Amino acid sequence: MTKTEEKHWLVRPKTVRWLRRGGLVLLALLVMADFYVHAHPSFQIDGTFGFYAWFGLVTCVAMVLFAKALGVFFKRKDTYYDND
């Protein structure tokens, strides 16, 4: 790679490291805000500490696993659209 062909700033390792750290700090601050914000839960479980953080994580993991399972059933061969 020559000097004129620099990587895009979002794919540089240093930038990725800073974005990851910044995201983790932001997530930690949002979970810590749960100490200061009074919740008005509709159910008992959504009044627990950090409910929206862990519920979002569990939901995201479940969606990924469901999409992977769907991929197993709807997968096509690589030559599906080739002419016979």
Question: Keywords for this structure?
Answer:
single chain; 84 residues; mainly alpha; 2 domains; flat
Show the helix and strand layout.
Elements (H helix, E strand, L loop, with lengths): L12 H20 L18 H24 L10
Structure description:
The protein has 84 residues and is mainly alpha-helical. The protein has 2 domains: 1-37; 41-77. It contains 2 helices and no strands. It has helices spanning 13-32, 51-74. 0% of the residues are buried. The model has no long low-confidence stretch (mean pLDDT 89).
What helical percentage do the residues reach? 40-55%
Report the portion of residues in β strands.
under 5%
The overall number of domains is: 2
Shape: flat
Q: What structural class is derived from the secondary structure elements?
A: mainly alpha
Radius of gyration (Å): 22 Å
H/E series: HH
Number of DSSP E strands:
0
Mean pLDDT: 89
What are the segments in which pLDDT stays under 50 over at least 5 consecutive residues?
none
How far apart are the first and last residues' alpha carbons, in Å?
42 Å
Number of helical regions: 2
Oligomer: single chain
Q: Describe the main β-sheet briefly.
A: none
